[in-house]
Design a protein that fits this description.
The protein has 458 residues and is α/β, with parallel strands linked by helices. It is built from 16 helices and 19 strands. Bound molecules: S-adenosylmethionine (SAM) and iron/sulfur cluster.
Length: 458
């Protein structure tokens, strides 16, 4: 058999595809949404099954940012008016109370993640009011993992200390790139000193895990600039590094991807070389690769989770732990009861108005079928462990032959190994894992979207 070279493989497999932070992926959720009764029944069921045994997770979306970074695909609201903070915190706490009234005992919080937008847009007092407000109705699970995203330009030592005192031991800083030309193009001027300052404070305070987000594939990035960005990163020894592929999704309303055009972006193969170069430098610096886009020091919890095959993936990306129930609070947040998904209103005003009217502010959702649940587990296995098996009765799918047929070419191209009841993605083909998952995606197989809704897989 003659295998294609790397560059031909990239050309062949670099197609639009989901990032599989959920299955079914959001565009394939039920068009009619989820009935309120179904949502309530599934969260109650999931809560009763898991609250005592493993605890539950909370994701809180903190949407505000002071400035627009023009590469950003997150749900955010740009404002310099900090007077918006109070009402938003009040609304999050009211939404939490709506859930408390539904659940039959006190939630035991195992994971809390503050994501954004920019959680550090909020003052220390407001962050404290929020976390203390949550615990008025909840207890802390015996082992817990509380984390937040922080913007190096606006994070103060006081905020880091306040969150640490409230139990947050993990933080991630958005770096993206240190090159001035790239920073100019993405409208994010953030000198090395700003990052070093917050990184040093976090270490001094005692944070157990610090992560840095870096993106490859940004406008004007070159091999020289990425080498420099990575050198600046590894010398600060973050415990984890998210090395994201730039998702260029200008067709999604409101992302604001501008300030550069497609010609300024590194082309497919060059982009992949930036990834390979980064990977080599991270390895040389002692980091190991986790899942699809993360690197971690062997001392970090995420590395341990990978070794023990306990890595999980949800709307936040890879996580070291899994709870059956994750309640998402805040504008655009997605909740996951394992049996169903629900997403909140995507505009702050709509979110606030609905919560103030005493309603759960959900605007779409999906009730998973038996088949969805099995496929979801296969996709999780592939994304987290690069292998899956249908040996056990609970993992069998009636359409496995059809799935294997879709994988035939990838098998012939030497990317995967197929055994009688098992499939393994070769370590060297890690970059194609999204393509392998697409073969299992039964919703995608039924109706491939006509317009662009996904970023490129590689
Ligand atoms: C909510 S932001 C991080 C917190 C804070 N707002 C900041 O910018 O520092 C989450 C991360 O998503 C990543 N991100 C945002 N838009 C992206 C895109 N279009 N492609 C790839 N990664 C992206 C960035 O690495 C960013 O740090
Ligand atoms: S990258 Fe962070 S700070 Fe910039 S717009 Fe996105 S969420 Fe806001």
């Amino acid at each position: 058999m003659k295998y294609l070279n790397n560059s031909s493989l990239i050309q062949k497999y670099n197609i639009p595809g989901p990032r599989y932070t959920s299955y079914p992926t959001v565009p394939f959720w039920n068009k009619e949404g989820i009935k309120k009764e179904d949502w309530l029944e599934t969260i109650k069921h999931s809560f009763n099954e898991s609250n005592t045994e493993e605890g539950i997770s909370l994701y809180l979306h903190m949407p505000y940012c002071e400035n627009l970074c023009t590469f950003c695909a997150c749900h955010k609201h740009i404002t310099k008016r900090h007077s918006v903070e109070d009402e938003y915190i009040d609304t999050l706490l009211k939404e939490w109370k709506l859930y408390i009234d539904i659940l039959e005992e006190k939630p035991s919080l195992r994971e809390i993640h503050l994501g954004g937008g920019t959680p550090t847009f909020f003052s220390s007092e407001n962050l404290k009011r929020l976390i203390n407000g949550l615990f008025e109705h909840a207890t802390r699970y015996e082992v817990y993992d509380f984390s937040f995203e922080a913007h190096p330009n606006d994070t103060t030592k006081e905020q880091l200390q306040t969150l640490f005192d409230l139990g947050f031991k993990r933080t991630s800083f958005g770096i993206q790139d240190y090159d001035p030309v790239v920073q100019q193009a993405i409208n994010r001027i953030q000198p090395y000193e700003n990052v070093k300052r917050v990184n040093d404070w976090a270490r001094e305070i005692g944070y157990e895990s610090i992560s840095h987000d870096i993106i490859f594939g940004l406008p004007h990035q070159t091999k020289e600039s990425i080498v420099n960005t990575i050198e600046q990163t590894v010398k600060q020894r973050p415990d984890r590094i998210a090395y994201y592929s730039y998702a260029h999704v200008p067709w999604i309303k409101g992302v604001g991807q501008r300030g550069f055009d497609e010609n300024d972006l590194p082309k497919d193969e060059y982009k992949r070389e930036l990834y390979e170069l980064g990977k080599k430098l991270f390895f040389e610096a002692g980091y190991e690769e986790i899942g699809m886009d993360h690197f971690a020091l062997p001392t970090d919890k995420m590395h341990k989770a990978m070794v023990e095959k306990k890595l999980h993936r949800n709307f936040m990306g890879y996580t070291a732990g899994k709870t059956k129930l994750m309640i998402g609070l805040g504008m655009s947040s997605i909740s996951d009861s394992w049996y169903s998904f629900a997403q909140n209103e995507k505009r702050v005003e709509d979110y606030v108005n609905r919560v103030n009217a005493g309603e759960l502010p959900i605007f779409r959702g999906h009730l998973l079928t038996e088949e969805d649940l099995i496929v979801r587990q296969h996709i999780l296995n592939l994304m987290c462990n690069l292998e899956t098996s249908w040996e056990e009765a609970s993992m069998k799918l009636s359409n496995i032959d059809e799935i294997l047929e879709r994988l035939k070419e990838m098998n012939e191209d030497g990317l995967i190994e197929i055994y009688e009841n098992k499939l393994v993605v070769k370590e060297s083909s890690r970059m194609f894992v999204r393509n392998v998952c697409m073969a299992f995606d039964l919703h995608l197989a039924k109706s491939m979207p006509q317009s662009r809704i996904f970023s490129m897989t590689i």
